[in-house]
Amino acid sequence: MKLTHPLLEQRIEFEDNKVNLMVVENPILFRNLIKEISLQIEGEPGQFILSDSKREYSMKKKMTILFSPFELDVNNSKIMTKTVNCLKEAAQDMEMILEKQQISREISAYLLKLRDLCDLNLCFSEEAELGYLIKSMGPYYSNNQTELIEVILSYTDLYASLFANEIFVLVAMVFDFRPQK
Question: CA 44 to CA 12: how far, in whole Å?
């Protein structure tokens, strides 16, 4: 896969387990390119083209831009929502459906005991909604990495496995805040 842009002298060739480095010395050009690639990754139009020999790809589906490795959170809401959806999909297997029904019966029995202890005229749904059940257990990814490179690799591995993104753009945090000319 390759990334091209009319203002770049060379195309960027992406290969597995290869890190590409692009240095843009002009701070205004750097800022404009980062803004444009960021907007394209969000789905906006632009001049970057991500392609291989067969076709052009949506940057929104294939790329992720990371502005600060210090703020990467494997437990952010986007990752956790996708994780819950993955677990819900896995629960569609017949064996998992039967197990969930058994768990729902046990939870219902427990809630009825609590209701009776509080002397409440309270009703509950017949079946526990799996998404709520998962969320109620407070799922989180353990993240014990201390080295910055380990944090980045852990985040990108998890993100790629959940969202099938193949390319991560890590932006160096060196900006020039002079006004554009």
Answer: 21
Q: Which is nearest to 12 in space by CA: 29, 28, 26, 24?
A: 24
Task: Name the token pair of 122.
Answer: 């309270």
pTM for the predicted model, two decimal places: 0.78
Element (H, E) at 65: strand 63-66
Backbone angles phi, psi at 86, to 5 degrees: -60, -45
Residue 32 burial by CB count (10 A; 0-12/13-18/19+): exposed, middle or buried? middle
State the amino acid at position 86 in one-letter form.
C
Quick: pLDDT tens for 45-96. 999 999 998 999 999 999 999 988 888 999 999 999 999 999 999 999 999 9
CA distance 168 to 36: 15
